[in-house]
Write a structure and sequence with these properties.
mainly beta, 2 domains, 5-stranded mixed beta sheet, Jelly Rolls, 401 residues
């Protein structure tokens, strides 16, 4: 006849939970039927729970009374649940004892009290709009798409980085990746949740009896060369600054006056003097939300060493030396100029050229997943304790789970 667990305990002298004598001071995976003393004095600690079997227990004790300073986080085994959901949980109460019992696949691990709470879903973002295109007549460079980010220290236009957003699970959030502007047109806005980045302004033109200044936008389009000396476009400042102004053209009257460079996320477009080379596009910025290796694999941004730049302005066109595109995907000026690089938000350079498409990049805790719109090849990427999701095209909704 098989012994019951209680009878076996009475015979072999084992009772209740087996406590591990080693104090836990770093992340670890717990074993069933064991208790652990956890010391978070130096840092937060993640406890990964074992695969669940009905009735299994794990107990965690705050060793140093520091859970309120550095919380203990509970992560499930694979897709198993805690408190009925597939989230990480936390305890932030000093001297707490947390007893977890595995019930079944529906409830998963549940606590004997209410001191475990869901870890907030805080998301950092980079939202870059499509860059502006250029005209066919003495063109200035296209302005870079507006750049808004909560990651790093600055956003487009030199403002302070914005505040990350706290999201809810299983909720639809809109996302649109703006396309680059066609020849002669400004770009298209990019959107994520409540964040809208404004399209880059198209470059100016100066045909006979006309005057087309560079268009306003996330960054302004460059001013046109030629007889009317069309001004550069201005960068928007509402709801927040997102880039810089385009450069003014290089002179008035007849002749071969060069076009100004398109504004970038990190600098104004260059305003050339009369008869000089076309103005260079303003440089973009490198917020650091994705590393160089993953950006290369995803095909986003312009990688320079370990930095990844976005939203460079397009170079202005001249009869002589052409303006160069700003680092961050800006196209070069000239009759054989180049378009803005796709998925950088770079402005177009040259004659009758399009801007580069935008991009949306999200960085969030690795415990969560994103569903809905198609991500780039290889996305989501894992960087440290975060996931990085990259969206290169399309419009729709995404959810966090």
């Amino acid at each position: 006849m098989a012994l019951t667990k209680l009878t076996k305990n009475l015979i072999d002298g084992t009772f209740g939970t087996e406590w591990v004598s080693t104090i836990q001071t770093s992340n670890f995976t717990a074993e069933a039927a064991k208790g652990y003393f956890v010391n978070t004095t130096s840092a937060e600690i993640t406890v990964t729970l074992p695969a669940g079997v009905v009735g299994n227990e794990v107990i965690i004790q705050d060793y140093a009374g520091t859970f309120a300073t550095n919380k203990v986080i509970f992560a499930s085994n694979g897709s198993e649940k805690i408190q009925g959901v597939t989230d990480d949980f936390k305890c932030e109460i000093n001297n707490a004892t947390v007893t977890l019992i595995y019930q079944d696949a529906t409830k998963g691990w549940t606590a004997n009290n209410i001191i475990i709470n869901t870890v907030p879903l805080i998301v950092n973002y980079l939202v870059v709009a499509g860059g502006g295109g250029t005209r066919a007549d003495s063109p200035g460079g296209g302005g870079a798409g507006g750049l808004r980010t909560s990651y790093g220290s600055i956003t487009g236009g030199g403002g302070s980085a914005e505040t990350p957003i706290t999201f809810s699970l299983a909720t639809n959030y809109p996302l649109t990746v703006g396309g680059g502007g066609a020849s002669g047109a400004s770009g298209n806005n990019s959107i994520f949740s409540t964040i809208t980045s404004t399209a880059g302004g198209r470059g100016g033109g100066a045909p006979t009896n006309s005057n087309y200044p560079g268009a306003d936008g996330g960054s302004g389009g460059g001013g046109a060369g030629g007889q009317y000396n069309a001004a550069g476009g201005s960068a928007v400042t509402s709801p927040v600054v997102q880039g810089y102004d385009g450069g003014t053209s290089g002179g008035t009257g007849g002749g071969t006056y060069p076009g100004g460079g398109g504004g970038g996320a990190g600098a104004v477009g260059v305003s050339p003097s009369g008869g000089q080379p076309g103005g260079n596009g303003g440089i973009g910025i490198s917020p650091g939300i994705i590393n160089a290796t993953n950006a290369t694999n995803a095909g986003v941004g312009q990688v320079v060493g370990s930095n990844v730049y976005f939203a460079g302005g397009g170079g202005g066109t001249a009869a002589g030396t052409q303006g160069t595109g700003g680092t961050g995907g800006g196209g070069n000026g000239g009759s054989s100029g180049t378009a803005g690089t796709p998925n950088t938000g770079g402005g177009g350079g040259g004659v009758n050229i399009g801007g580069g498409s935008g991009v949306v990049i999200l960085r969030y805790p690795s415990a969560y997943t994103v569903s809905g719109m198609t991500q780039s090849a290889g996305s989501p990427f894992t960087e440290g304790s975060s996931k990085v999701s990259v969206f290169k095209t399309g419009t729709g909704n995404i959810q966090f789970n």
